Amino acid sequence: MTAELKAYGINSSCRITGEQGLEPRLTDPESVVLPLHHSPTRPLIVNRHLPIVNCHLTVPGRIANLLSMIRFYQLMVLGFMAALLTGCNGSAKKEPIWKHTKISDLAPTAGTENPDDRLKTITFNIYIFEMPAKNISTLDNAWQILYTNALEFNSYEAFNANSFLIGFGQDQMWNKIADLLRAAGAKKLETVTLLLSDKEASDVAIATLYDEQTVFYLWRDGSLDGTTMGPGTIALRVKAEKIPGSRGVCKLDVLPVFLPLTKSSIPQIAAREQSGEFLFKWCRFGSKMAPSDFIFLGPKRYVGSQTTLDSLIFSRNYDDEPVARTYLFVCSRITD
């Protein structure tokens, strides 16, 4: 029995309530003997986590012990309630910070580029045709069909003096121009597609100058002049600009330029080298255009010397077979 009591944490010297002859003396002055004639059949189980009751405590001591137990249970209840409240608050699933974020909240702030400006684009297709130089007169009818009053020039006299011919056309006129090109034996050499932002320019390479040479051209009064340039590239600088207040209309501007050979990949040095550009401003042309409008550019004659501006733009010689070039600028799309 002693070993069994020790197993439950009870001292063998502590007498168990209910043993015969025990007088608890709950009343005074007379004692009351509890009418118990048998010992408990099972040992008293003491919870190790609860305050241990001292078997020898007097009535005040037992009352104090009882109050201690009540306080203990109160603390347990308060602790349980606090844990429950904390658990309710802490168990709530936190939503990720991005759940309620709108796409508009990620937009650039003031001072950065407006995304709408990047979507406003103008698309041009440039078709380059080559034909036998001997058939160039076949295109004479083309210049009579096309308009010139819609075109703008820095100097039409200089433009014409340098053997440039040009005409403006619309969609319904294209079939006639295409028939004339087929009659001249023209073949499409290349198609260049330009996707331009508003007021953006792009250079389309036309001819390469491998060495330094003098390029000759005529002024508006017909006087001959020349500039030494090269190595580098003769190009057409194409620029498109939208017209404020006019939807679906843009202004095309084309300028012949010489671009010096850029030898450095470092942007700052390349920019200084690029400053050696030469602009043939007197040969600039342009026009207001809508989708399906086109500009047709060609030469008056074939010049095979490759020393004049018009010969570099319009003339080629393949194995002693002279070839003339023409250029078709088509406005394909305008995104407002």
Structure characterization notes:
- This protein has helices at residues 2-7, 59-91, 115-119, 140-145, 156-161, 174-183, 267-274, 309-314, and strands spanning 121-132, 151-153, 164-169, 187-197, 200-209, 213-218, 224-229, 232-242, 250-260, 278-279, 285-289, 294-299, 315-318, 321-334.
- With 336 residues, it is of the alpha+beta class.
- The protein folds into 2 domains: 2-75, no CATH class; 118-334, no CATH class.
- The strands form 3 sheets. Strands 1, 3, 4, 12, 13 and 14 form a 6-stranded antiparallel beta sheet that branches.
- The protein is elongated.
List the helices and strands and how they pair.
Elements: H1 2-7, H2 59-91, H3 115-119, E1 121-132, H4 140-145, E2 151-153, H5 156-161, E3 164-169, H6 174-183, E4 187-197, E5 200-209, E6 213-218, E7 224-229, E8 232-242, E9 250-260, H7 267-274, E10 278-279, E11 285-289, E12 294-299, H8 309-314, E13 315-318, E14 321-334
Antiparallel strand pairs: 1-4, 1-14, 2-11, 3-12, 5-8, 6-7, 8-9, 9-10, 9-11, 12-14, 13-14
Features:
2 domains, 336 residues, elongated, 24% helix, alpha+beta, six-stranded antiparallel β-sheet
